[in-house]
Design a protein that fits this description.
Length: 249
Amino acid sequence: MLIFYCLLILWVAVALGTFIYLFNTVAPYGRHESSGWGPKVSARLGWIVMESPSVILMLSLGWLMRDKLNVIHETFLMIWLVHYIHRTFIYPFWMNMTTKTMPLTIPISAFMFNIVNVLIQAIGIYYFTEYSANWHQSLEFKLGLIVFIAGMFINIYSDFLITRMKKNKGPGYHIPNSFLHKYISSPNYFGEIIEWLGWAILTWSASGLVFFIWTFANLFPRAISNHTWYKNRFEEYPKNRKAIFPGII
């Protein structure tokens, strides 16, 4: 167990380094796609591949550890899969991707991250965190589940509104002005940060906390870059709109 928690500390240090790095280098996919990052692949295929460990590997580990799982662990697994089945196999097909390709380095690096993250979540929660048989009645579980569901709704609905806007206004990028888009440039990222905060609370685990830290480290700098991109691209972009946290930043 000590080795595992030492590895978690190291992984958090990597997250901090990534957080700093992403303020200086914008990951070259989506609206930030640029040349000079090597060969490219289909954005849709790349997305499916890079997210797939979060479904396939997590299910495989759940099956391998099935003798150690109780109903609480199985509940966590179902909650996890609700997010990642949508993220892996539904989102890439209904989301209208303006940029059709991404550098191969993006899905490769994300694929490797997801392998490590799944291992951390599965081992840390299934092996090293104790849960009572009535954990689902605890305040932590109930509060965390509410936060998780709220974040997932914000994340999915924000993406849906972007897709609907592209259908109504044509392909390319436009200024969204509905729902939380009226207040922040990246409500989908805001929702995902809330979602994994909920996961950290409902699992009440070091592994869940580490994933929340990684989510923030990855998405906060990206949201700042998106906000800057919108302001540079559209002169009429609302001046009072924030990047990711309404009324704050």
